[in-house]
Amino acid sequence: MPLSQEHKNRSRKKILDSAVELFSAKGFNNVSIDDVMNNAKMTRGAFYAHFSSKSVLYKESILNAAINTKLAKEKPDNLENQEWINRLLERYLSSDHVNLKSTPCPIVFLSIDTAVSEPDVKEAYTATFKNMNKGIYDFTKSYSTCSENQILAVTAMMVGGVSIARALNDETTKNKLLKSCREVAKQILDGA
Amino acid sequence: MPLSQEHKNRSRKKILDSAVELFSAKGFNNVSIDDVMNNAKMTRGAFYAHFSSKSVLYKESILNAAINTKLAKEKPDNLENQEWINRLLERYLSSDHVNLKSTPCPIVFLSIDTAVSEPDVKEAYTATFKNMNKGIYDFTKSYSTCSENQILAVTAMMVGGVSIARALNDETTKNKLLKSCREVAKQILDGA
DNA sequence: GTCTATAGAAAGATAGAC
DNA sequence: GTCTATCTTTCTATAGAC
């Protein structure tokens, strides 16, 4: 591969990493091409030598971040599968991941809207979320041993399920996902 | 209450309902004030007689949608709590809710980004999501009886958990949520 | 391939008539 | 309170020099 091509690839990678970082933190719409390029230490004009539009960048960012996470490839040889999965769970559902101190998951990309930056919106959101959980608990406590903590997990599953379903391309996967969430949620709320 | 005040309230409600509908379908950033007002059959200028800015509208929309869902108030008297919760689950995790044919949940508001409208992005997203599930299954099948369907539900819980955590205001709730998701996810993946 | 400069469009917010 | 008209900012995308 010629030197110039290598240089181009490095630049492309720098842009993609910059984009993943910013999209995860602020959401696609709250990040301009200028932001991405400045964060990659380049100027706006150079962008179009690599990507034909902003939405192409978005698509490539998802794929790039997916490669970055390397779920399968990173497992140390001396670790059992079960331990590895548990470690991944811990890492994924950690404050560090939430606060973007570890490699962000591209599936959560599209879950950030203006809410992140507007305190008033955050407040309304938090109150509504608490209400939702309390509402469910008020009903389940009369017939189930299901704890308030378990309900938090169920709510997350509900919200995640609907969010992902809305973004999916493929009707079969969508329906399977919704059905699975219904079944598992029901099991937990029934106190199994 | 004077007639003019009543008129103003009706207009306000019309704007809010219009906003909830559009934000749910396209996300906050992909909806302009013009869109909201046209959908409410008014013009842009009238907007500022009701809300001081677009982000105030967002906040009020969340609260308005939360009232609309009326989780608790709608329960028919002759229905047992358990049946009612199951019915809510079915409704929440339904195609109709995903496709916005029933009253949308404001907690899912912030989960829609450009992905919805760009086919290329949807495609990349769907592929990445499937990969994530397959990746987890490849490990768990060696030690657990956990089904592929259950893994879908776990993935939804993980994504929902991180998304919600990012939007929350309150560190205590955030940490409780993450911990609950970790525990419940682990339980399911262990094949309990 | 990367830069600066700029065209063109979109959208938040305001002003003033009715 | 609602309208039309307008100001202003921001951002995508392109043009042309090096």
Q: How many structural domains does the protein architecture of chain A include?
A: 2
The unreliable regions of chain A are none
SS-derived structural category of chain A: mainly alpha
Helical fraction of chain A equals 55-70%
Biggest sheet of chain A, in brief? none
The whole-number mean of residue pLDDT values of chain A reads 88
Order of helices and strands of chain A: HHHHHHHH
Secondary-structure topology with pairs:
2 copies of one chain form a homodimer.
Chain A: H1 3-26, H2 33-39, H3 54-69, H4 81-92, H5 95-98, H6 119-140, H7 148-167, H8 171-189
Chain A binds a DNA duplex (18 and 18 nucleotides) through α1.
Describe this structure in words.
The structure is a homodimer of 192-residue chains. With 192 residues, chain A is an all-alpha fold. Chain A has two domains: 3-111, Tetracycline Repressor, domain 2, CATH 1.10.357; 118-189, no CATH class. The first copy, chain A, is built from eight helices and no strands. The first copy, chain A, starts with a helix and ends with a helix. The mean pLDDT of chain A is 88. At the A-B interface, helix 3, helix 4, helix 5, helix 6 and helix 7 of A face helix 3, helix 4, helix 5, helix 6 and helix 7 of B. Chain A binds a DNA duplex (18 and 18 nucleotides) through helix 1.
Observed structural traits:
8 helices, homodimer, DNA-binding, mainly alpha, 2 domains, Tetracycline Repressor, domain 2, 192 residues
